[in-house]
């Protein structure tokens, strides 16, 4: 009886141990699941960190590119400002020369008006001899050449002034 009781106790112990083993195996399975989740989280964190590092790298490249663009634009602005200053200097000197030539032309017109602007026939009629006619004709011819030259210079200066002003406006628009 004692042996039967021992066998039955051993059977009970065996059954309890099986239950304990089953519980432990369930706990091990839960622990494994928890471990797998933690490992997946770690893996996801690593992927996220790698993605962030990639974004940081790309942003740094963008910053370098934009910095290069800014430097290039700054250089272009400096060049445009230099060209604008040069054009303004050219315009000022051309304007001064134009004003000077306009004043000369005004004086010439005034002198011509005051002298009565004699016609060629009056020059011939008022001459004493052929040499006097040639001399007066030469003077009238030189004055006409000078006037033509002065008018051409004025036209060129005015044209150059307009062109420089247009170029200045263009450069200022580029600068803007």
Question: Low-confidence stretches at least 5 residues in length (pLDDT < 50)?
Answer: none
What is the strand tally?
A: 0
Question: Tell me, what's the shape?
Answer: rod-shaped
Main beta sheet strand tally, sense and closure? none
Average pLDDT metric = 85
Helix residue percentage? over 70%
State the end-to-end distance: 112 Å
Strand content: under 5%
Q: How many helices?
A: 3
Structural class: mainly alpha
Q: What's the oligomerization state? A: single chain
Helix and strand sequence: HHH
Radius of gyration: 52 Å
Describe the protein in words.
The protein is mostly helical and 176 residues long. The protein has three helices and no strands. The protein has helices at residues 2-114, 120-125, 130-175. Helix 1 (2-114) packs antiparallel against helix 3. The chain is rod-shaped, with a radius of gyration of 52 Å.
SSE layout:
Layout: H1 2-114, H2 120-125, H3 130-175
Brief rundown of the structure:
By secondary structure, the protein is mainly α. It is built from 3 helices and no strands.
Descriptive terms for the model:
mainly alpha; 176 residues; rod-shaped
